[in-house]
Amino acid sequence: MIGKIKKGKSFGGCIRYVMGKDNAEIIDSDGVLLGNIREITDSFNYQRELNPKIKQPVGHIALSFKPEDKALLTDEFMAKIAREYMELMGIKNTQFILVRHHNTDNPHCHLVYNRIGYDGKVISSQGDYKRNEIATKLLKNKYGLTYAEGKGKTNVEKLHASERVKYEIFNAVKAALKCSGTWKEFNDYLLRRGIRLEFVKRVREIKRPEDIQGIRFTKDGQTFKASQISREFSFARLNALLSWKTSESQQESERKVQQGIPDGGHLLVSTGPGLFSPTNGTVPEEPLHQEELLRRRKKKKRRKGFGL
After folding, report:
1. Which of 148, 173, 208 is the last residue of a domain?
2. What is the per-residue DSSP string for the chain?
3. Domains in the chain: how many in total?
4. Which of 9, 85, 221, 291 is surrounded by the most beta carbons within 10 Å?
């Protein structure tokens, strides 16, 4: 069992989506006229006027279960689980409809609710992702529902384009971590698979790891935050696994073509789009050599001038 949370502005668009699937059926509801899509939408819109300042009054959560649990999930049992889920999520004293779909192998339903309660107060969404994680785990344990096997075993071919790219990035990052000891090795592995790694900066210029706020991955023109791929791929967690150190030969070659930024005896040097690695803090030799040549040329010209 998993819950996918969304918020929105239009009840009409959301209702048309959940009711527009083949064999969609409302298995539970409260405070809503169910005659047709227009009546359902109007019911939600009338109540949203109790607090018109709220720009996203639409609450939409898809609850999905594993195929192994299909025999257990009668409409009544699914509605019971959804009611308990709502209670754990703090979704109460408000309108809702629960719509079951039958268009996939995974039994699932869509909970559409009004974030404006019967009393005109808004149902807070603060911390809802964490509450969702706790609620689904409690219900899985309570009713013995099947746990997911992990993203690595997902059939990628059946996914929509954006979801497919997410899983491809997930699998590539997992594989990269198995054979990488440094950020550079990690980055090079991903680049070979068409994935670009980019750091999100806290400040204008990155000089040390503490200046990095997060990570983004880009593949096939689509960019995702690390948390959208998996929470285990946060910068803090990856940084605990990967080193900034490089081999001496690599440092020497990089020193000849890059300009370092001093930071307490160490340097963080750009080695590609968004990737940094430390060097030993010495000043690059080639720029000094060029300055010396320029100085000598000026002296030579000066001597010629005095000789005329």
Report:
1. 148
2. -EEEEEEES-HHHHHHHHHSSTT-EEEEEES---SSHHHHHHHHHHHHTTSTT-S--EEEEEEE--GGGTTT--HHHHHHHHHHHHHHHT--SS-EEEEEE-SSSS-EEEEEEESB-TTS-B---TTHHHHHHHHHHHHHHHHTPPPP--GGGS-GGGS-HHHHHHHHHHHHHHHHHHH-SBHHHHHHHHHHTT-EEEEEESSSS--SGGGEEEEEEEETTEEEEHHHH-GGG-HHHHHHH-B----HHHHHHHHHH----EETTEEEEE-STT-EEEE--PPPHHHHHHHHHHHHHHHHHHHHHHH-
3. 2
4. 85
Three-point CA angle 270, 274, 279, nearest 5°: 30
289: exposed, middle or buried (Cβ count in 10 Å: 0-12, 13-18, 19+): exposed
Tens of pLDDT, residue by residue over 74-83, are 999 999 999 9
* Structural domain for 82, as ranges: 2-148
Same domain, 6 and 137: yes
Q: Are 209 and 129 members of one domain?
A: no
How far out from the chain centre does Cα 5 lie?
13
Half-sphere exposure for 235 (CA within 13 Å, toward CB): 19
Q: Tens digit of pLDDT for each residue in 245-266? A: 755 545 554 554 454 443 333 3
